[in-house]
Design brief:
Strand content: 15-25%
Largest sheet: 8 strands, mixed
Helix content: 25-40%
Structural class: alpha/beta
Length: 442
């Protein structure tokens, strides 16, 4: 048994002082408040549950600082992204992803939803192990020390009635049946189907990346796992979908049986009132990635309308222009203020719930995101004496509207202290990032 003492912790019934938790087999066995630390490991500051990053493309981290040098749109940025995708191998992807996941841990992220579509070798030829790239990502997450939901993504077309380009050949299995067969092999051959730290989920890249007659097959292939999709990130995608199918992307997904309480619609930026109603009535999650959406000039999504319609909010760092879930949380509220010219749409408690309880659920870790007996023992300590947090009161509002990733001092994942005093226990994160990024951008 391992014990941790928290100076102040966010428990289900609110902030509580002098909290002692015991951990057995990676889960909280007991949670006591108002007690002395004894011989427990001490976590100072404000301690919150582990954060869930629900949408990641690990290799996009190599683009940070390289795509902000010129004008353009999402579509011009995409060409730079493809250049990195073309350069990756299973070995270089493992090293890059391990460094990126270690950076996430420094930011208090204890589980990641990796939206994985870079499956094959250049030109689309298969590796001897058809899941070599996915296996590399799983190994990277395990070696970095966080849980992963590998959202294996079906990607079949370059656009509506458009063939795959040269780089996109790496993404495709040919059709949804072949994709599902490969994913089944991944879950079986690598022994992760029932692993406690790995979820094998499913995804369709988008309505432009998966033809309408294939969407239903993706949705039904693995009915008991998380199901994700990029949705209406760009106005151009909506216009093309209307021209091709006579309906919006959300309507196309609804007709294909894609929307449900296990589904996450990533971005959900440009929606009609009908779209919002469909997502809400099906309890589909809306995964917002505000730092990416502003970096790529995507727009501001209707977060309040989606919430009010019944769609739970989750958060992701997507392209990793920033890896900071505190910034993603507050950006939802701050972006809404810009759009509406009013304040106070999202409370700090609601935003933290999106980053913890609801985020973990959306990627298949339903028993995480809360400090309570039986839950996964994830803890994130936030310092209250930095230039950002000093004098803020040490409340939930401090975590959401004042703190940054740089204020995270300690991170416990399934009972194991992976970050201490702001340092990863096993990885020199800046060095690992520099080396792994140079290997795919030089």
């Amino acid at each position: 048994m391992t014990s941790y003492w928290c100076e102040t912790a966010l428990l289900p019934d609110g902030l509580t002082g002098r909290v002692l938790v015991s951990v057995v087999d990676g889960r909280f066995a007991s949670v006591e408040s108002g007690v002395d630390p004894g011989d427990a490991q001490v976590l100072n500051g404000l301690v919150v549950p582990g954060l869930a990053n629900c949408h990641s493309h690990a290799f996009h981290r190599a683009l940070r600082g390289r795509t902000q040098t010129e004008r353009g749109t999402f579509w011009t940025w995409r060409e730079q992204m493809y250049a990195v995708a073309a350069a990756l191998t299973p070995d270089t992807y493992y090293e890059l992803a391990k460094a990126v996941y270690a950076e996430m841990l420094l930011a208090g992220i204890t589980a990641v939803g990796e939206f994985h579509y870079l499956h094959h070798a250049p030109g689309g030829s298969r590796y001897d192990d058809a899941n070599a790239m996915g296996t590399a990502l799983i190994a990277a997450a395990r070696d970095a020390g966080l849980r992963i939901a590998l959202l294996d993504t079906c990607y079949l077309a370059g656009g509506f009635d458009q063939p795959l380009n040269e780089v996109q050949q790496r993404f495709s299995d040919g059709d949804a049946t072949a994709w599902a067969s490969r994913v089944a092999q991944l879950a079986g051959a690598h022994g992760v189907a029932g692993a406690d730290d790995v979820v094998i989920g499913a995804a369709a890249h988008s309505v432009r990346g998966v033809p309408q007659d294939q969407l239903g097959a993706v949705a039904s292939a693995f009915p008991d796992v998380p199901l994700h999709i990029h949705l209406s990130e760009q106005v151009a995608e909506n216009e093309a979908c209307l021209a091709a199918y006579g309906r919006t992307p959300t309507q196309a997904l609804d007709e294909a049986g894609f929307l449900s309480g296990r589904t996450s619609a990533v971005h959900a930026t440009h929606l009609t009132s009908v779209d919002i109603g469909l997502l809400g009535s099906s309890a589909t999650y809306s995964c917002f990635c505000p730092t990416t959406e502003r970096d790529l000039a995507d727009g501001i999504g209707p977060s309040v309308q989606l919430r009010d319609a019944g769609s739970p909010l989750t958060l992701g760092s997507d392209s990793h222009a920033v890896i900071d879930l505190f910034e993603e949380m507050r950006a939802v509220e701050l972006d809404e203020r810009l759009a509406s010219q009013e304040r106070g749409h999202w409370s700090a408690a609601e935003l933290l719930k999106a980053a913890t309880v609801d985020g973990h659920r959306s990627i298949g870790f339903e028993d995480a995101g809360v400090i309570a007996p039986g839950a996964r023992a994830d803890l994130v300590a936030i310092r209250l004496d930095s230039a950002r947090t000093a004098g803020t009161g040490g409340t939930v509002e401090t975590a959401v509207f004042a703190a940054t990733a740089a204020d995270v001092t300690d991170v416990v994942v399934s009972g194991r202290r992976v970050v201490a005093a702001g340092k990863h226990s096993a990885i020199d994160v800046p060095s690992a990032l520099s080396t792994s990024i140079a290997a795919v951008t030089s």
